[in-house]
Amino acid sequence: MASGGDDEQIRNKQVIFKDYVSGFPKESDMYVSTKGTIRLKVPDGSNGIVVKNLYLSCDPYTRNRMTKPDTGNYYVNYLKPGLPINGLGVAKVLDSGHPNFKKGDLVWGNTGWEEYSLITDFQLLFKIQHSNVPLSYYTGILGLPGLTAYGGFYEVCSPKKGDNVFISAASGAVGQLVGQFAKLLGCYVVGSAGSKEKVDLLKNKFKFNEAFNYKEEPDLDATLKRYFSEGIDIYFENVGGKMLDAVLLNMRAHGRIAACGLISQYNLDKPEGVHNLMHLIYKRIRMEGFVVFDYFHLYPKFLEFVLPQIAEGKIVYLEDIAEGLESGPSALVGLFSGLNVGKQVVLVARE
Amino acid sequence: MASGGDDEQIRNKQVIFKDYVSGFPKESDMYVSTKGTIRLKVPDGSNGIVVKNLYLSCDPYTRNRMTKPDTGNYYVNYLKPGLPINGLGVAKVLDSGHPNFKKGDLVWGNTGWEEYSLITDFQLLFKIQHSNVPLSYYTGILGLPGLTAYGGFYEVCSPKKGDNVFISAASGAVGQLVGQFAKLLGCYVVGSAGSKEKVDLLKNKFKFNEAFNYKEEPDLDATLKRYFSEGIDIYFENVGGKMLDAVLLNMRAHGRIAACGLISQYNLDKPEGVHNLMHLIYKRIRMEGFVVFDYFHLYPKFLEFVLPQIAEGKIVYLEDIAEGLESGPSALVGLFSGLNVGKQVVLVARE
What is the CATH number of the domain that holds B40? Predict the structure, then answer.
């Protein structure tokens, strides 16, 4: 148990969410405040923990949480104007009132965009057991993006050897893993991304069979026909809109679409319409949305699968690390113009 | 085997498909011809059968087959201008060169919109074994609409007792059955239709819990919230467009959408856009298209299930029978303005 008596408050730099956003988020929708303070001891009687934040995760889904709450969306955990952004990160325990955590433990899960956080909600907080990998990996390949790729691919896509797999936003935190999982299984894998640099990465670093820059393709239907002359068995959907419409035209009979995210739509007041849903019927396609929270029970199995692959170099992971809490707003906003190359992380402190 | 020698040609009235259609089909897209003739004997050496057509089925899907063939749509069996419409029906065998069929047999399956047909493709032709039900039922409850409802509901919707089920175009050939299957299983069932008469049928004849006239509902989202305060578990999709968008807002977590047809979209040059697909992710919805051809192996099991229910009056079926081959064009066109009440059938001959 924590002991009281130490009342020293220290400065706690924070990234504050200013107000609800419509359209593209801007850096000015957030600001860095140095007015906050925190006591590095757990309050008497609390079962909370005080942590020092090391790495913070920039996630596309955060955009949805910046919208003014809509009564229809019970599934979104909205941000609150005037408070620090909260999200996933890696942190070190400085003091603990919780039996499962002790000083010095490393954890990953829900924390705040600030130097130090008092965590009292443990629904999404895991103790890090394997530290022979970069700690930042727990915001990515060993964290929710990794579990998202694993659950989405193996549980939703019903993949089998030889399947033709297409992945949009393929160089992102989730896409790069799905592609590598599919390659390991013996699939033919094509990814789309938004720059030549990313396309090169997909082909050379992540060993996709093919990749293309969607910004340079005036006719996505023709593009997909070029890469999938026999059609697509599995589409791992990260973007939505026009890409989904083109994919629907190119799916094979009994194809599967795993809907993981629709990043092209998050900043639109009204999402684009998708017109080709008739092809769901023509081709008996199963399109299934999923959220990683339904796959937490698979996390131990996932680590057992992925840690040896990392150790043997069979799966590689690319991060884009922005230095300093101050870089948080630009790093987060950059996701939506595709500035990041690989998983976007904010480094708050090395240890 | 058929014997040759009888060369008498008799008149064979036919409904001819005039030319490819865009927009709503009109009666004038077809015409009745009395110029055709047929010989009521199977040609020497053929394994075909000659039948007298009794009942013809009017199916929404025929609209798709009237469009000019699009290279993208490998799954549509297009109609050919200048030839009789072909489709499903009930017929009586007059002469047979096929070992599985003999004179006097009753069959259902692919035939032509004409008085007599020479059938040489047996991929979709079944001998009728149970004749203690109206023969016209083999165009509906005991034919493809019945198997569609059975396969779509039990194989795609993963239904369970207590589920909240919504069915669009609910008084149609398929919808009326899905609703009754769901009621038998102990679900709460609501249907939409396009007239007061149909709404009354859904509530009084088919025993749906609730039903509404979508044409009188200015805000479908509000309508669905009124009938499904706890959300929808299963949506049996027959219409698409605005209804699908409203349903997506009202699905429950882990809901299932079986996409059977999108009749509201068939007559549009460009289908309406569907905007709320994000809810597939928020609520982890599985949306799956299906076609009845994948469920042919279930047909014997389906008959075993449904025949006793019909005999005991636990499942009722409503047909809208137009008299005479000449009424074919208007009966078919009427589907798209919702003129039919129940399964639309054309009676060509009683026996």
Answer: 3.90.180.10
What CATH code is carried by the domain that includes residue A185?
3.40.50.720
CA distance A281 to B75: 10
B249, B281, B285 member nearest A72 (Cβ): B249
B136 and B153 inside one domain: no
Asked if residue B2 belongs to a domain, the reply is: no
Bridge partner residues of A38 (DSSP) = A10
Q: Where are the alpha helices (DSSP H) in chain B?
A: 62-65, 144-150, 175-184, 196-204, 220-227, 242-250, 278-282, 299-311, 328-334
| Within-domain flag for B82 | yes
Residue A2 covered by a domain: no
The model's confidence at residue A73, banded by pLDDT at 50, 70 and 90, is low
Confidence of residue A75 (pLDDT cuts 50, 70, 90): low
Please check whether residues B51 and B175 belong to one and the same domain.
no
Mean pLDDT by 10 residues, chain B (351 residues): 63 97 93 96 95 96 87 73 96 97 96 97 91 91 95 97 97 94 98 95 96 97 98 95 96 96 74 91 95 93 96 94 97 90 94 85
Task: Say whether both B209 and B284 belong to one domain.
Answer: yes
B277 and chain A: CB distance < 8 Å anywhere?
yes
Of A280, A288, A291, the CB nearest to B289: A280
**Quick one: pLDDT at residue A191?**
98
Instruction: Residue A262: list chain B partners with CB under 8 A.
Output: 277-278, 281
| Residue B121 and residue B218 in one domain | no
Q: Does A281 sit within 8 Å of B262, measured CB to CB?
A: yes
Q: Are residues A197 and A267 in the same domain?
A: yes
ipTM: 0.86
Residue of A nearest to B264 (CA): A278
CB contact under 8 A, B273 and A270: no
Query: Which domain covers residue B45, as residue numbers?
Result: 9-140+318-347
CB-based contact B160:B241 (threshold 8 Å): no
Q: How many CB pairs under 8 A join A and B?
A: 107
How many structural domains is chain B composed of? 2
- Residue A303 forms part of a structural domain: no
- Look at B280 and A288 and tell me if their CB atoms are within 8 Å: yes
